[in-house]
Amino acid sequence: FPTSTYIKMWADTQRELDTMLQREREEFLQPEEDREKAMKMLATAYVQYLGIFRNLEEAHDHLIHQQKRAAVRQALDGVMGRILEIKKEMVALEKSECHSLDGILMDLKRVPEAIEIPIPKYFIKENLRILQEREEYLHEILLNAGLLEQEPVRAMTLEEAIKVIQVAERARQGRARAAFMKRIYLEEKRQSKKEEQGTGRNPDDAATCIQKVWRGYSQRKKTEKLREEEMVFLGMNSAEMINGTGSLPPDVEAMRCLKKANVLKGKVQERKELSFRQELRQTEGPHIKETLQDQITQCFLECRHVTGRFPDYPPEKSGGSKAIFVEKHPEQVAEELAAKKEAEKMESEKYGKGQGKPKAKEPEKAGKQVVDLGWKMGPSNFLSMLEEGSSQYQVFWENRDNRSDFLQDHDPELIKGGERKGVEEEIRVQVDEVMQEKLLNIKKALDGETGLQGKAKGSEKGKKKKDQKKTQKTQKRGNDNLMMSLACRTVDSLYQELAEEGLLIKVQNVNLSDYIGYYDYLRNIPPETGAQPMPSIPEVRQLVTLYGILPLGSHTVHVNAPLVKSLLLAGPAGVGKKMLVHAICTETGANLFNLTVSNLAGKYPGREGLMMMLHMILKVGKELQPSVVWIRDTEKIYTKGKGASKPQEEMNFKRLAKLLPQFLKALKPKDRVLLVGTTSRPFDANVGPFCKAYQKIIVIPKPGYLTRFGKYFTLWKQYILQSGGALSKLLNLNCLAQVSDGFTQRHIVDVVQTVLTELRLLQMDRKPLRTAEFVIPLARHDPVYKEEEEAFQ
After folding, report:
1. Which residues contact 507 (CB under 8 A, 6 or more apart)?
2. How far apart are CA 126 and CA 727, in angstroms?
3. 238, 561, 639, 762: which has the highest count of C-beta atoms within 10 A?
4. Positions of the region Disordered (predicted)?
């Protein structure tokens, strides 16, 4: 589609977003006593925001104009965060991660696929070069260490060996027979030539022979051309594409051109930004500096006139001179500074006397009052971002004539406005240093104040307390040398060590869309049973996207959205938990650290070793974020029971379970690091610490009938085609879907790989696939029985 299509899509979506913001101001600010009505309001907003999210993502992916992309990006991140906030409120109301949205979809006239959560492509595109270099570096490390996974050599059975020998012998006999027949044919041909030379060739026979050869050649050319046209029409790879002599399909060619244009436009805009910044420094820099100094001096003089003394200069942590430039009277500024000082003194005195504990009771009373009033939407960190983006769109982009902007060039005035803020910030920091020294000199000259004595005394007291704490810590912990050694090491050396130890592994290239599944329209669990409904596979994809992919992919969303540090994927063996972990890393470009029990055996023994390993992972994960820390079979480190006679390895895993809360506590909102655990037997773990370690638990079901056999791509059809098989009338997929009820995705994959061997693929043309070929291997597997499935609920 042309660029104007996506500009129009952006405009329509922005108007829809403005309507949603207006509706939130009217509805969500008022308390609601009826929980069902509140849930309906939230669910409606959730579905509508998902539609806005999908349109914004598509527009952002196809726009070339870099400044328009930045404007769309701001709205896109805001909508992602708002969706997470609404999801949190829905979970708090229903006490469940799965919601029945059928009625909302019918009211809005939308299909179930409308609530599929798209994954923004800029997660990978904007960091593609860095990710490729990191992948090459990891491949080189694993190759040098000999840790690359090789295909396992499978031993042949006696029957398979006999078949291989038979095939080779029959092929030898066929080649010998063909050579013998070729000699006979050549001998007959020589005899016929001798006879023709003696009698002479008839001209009519020669003309007939030439016509036969020419007509065959011309018809073959026509057939080949028709085949190529048909392949192009169907959107499949043609012979020209394979040989590299033809052109790409239109959509692929358009995406390649769009990618090149985005790179070129970005480079041009970066050069312009540098030139504009230098120009602003030279032309407006002196004037900005002089104005700032005059304003700061005037504010200090007014404060001294009101209070009788010069105020203290605001520290850089509180914004420096930014704290001065507020639209308030100097008296108000002086009062606020004095109030802050008194509050700090009171807090220090209370903490010194040990009277800081009763403060924890106050929020409980406030919480009870809020519950009595009814449900009310919590505060949002993204509504201000969305409103700011909406106002910027109305000012800069809404009434712009895009027809004249054929080349989609940047707007110099917008660049100047953005760079002017950066230049002002640079100059403000320089002015703060000069004015702070100037203020100290004035205080010494006029007031006789140094402003350093109190600080020196306080700093001496603070140092004494800190020294006491440090000595206590050194007495309790004996791992200071290890931590110091980690602090001195570079991230590259830690990265290499983790890869060589097998803790940093290569990510399998799997997308979340490859996890096939359809909605279970017949799911209906009576509410009186008390059991949580088992989510369908599309709901699993949504939850993984909400809690894993979106926060890891966007720094803005991770910092401001409800923080999820840990995620547990629980389900029967073979339902695709490992695939989902690799999909999270693939969609976000994250590093994958494998802390599986079997992978840690013999590595970093003892408490000090485990602490050093976790510190290494934490340092590398934060520096090269996003990162995923994966613990497979996580129930093994939370096993029930106590006993003194335990193996050393099991004791090491118990220590890991105790250190995980400290690891999670060290993760801040700015750190895009996610702990993901997978388990097929969660009921074997000690429930208390096991559930405390994971904030979100996603139960993964076995595939339903629609997933095994649906209208489009389903498990049986997808796996057979991926393995090189061909569908035929003798292969009844409906029958296979009925027979495979209770079996998982891994069972179906194993059955397809068992049947479709190399020899069977060679026989595909003359011997089509039959249903019975898959039934016998399927019977060798044990399905997921009803008792095990109910245990997960």
Report:
1. 582, 585, 586, 590, 592
2. 40
3. 561
4. 344-366, 451-481
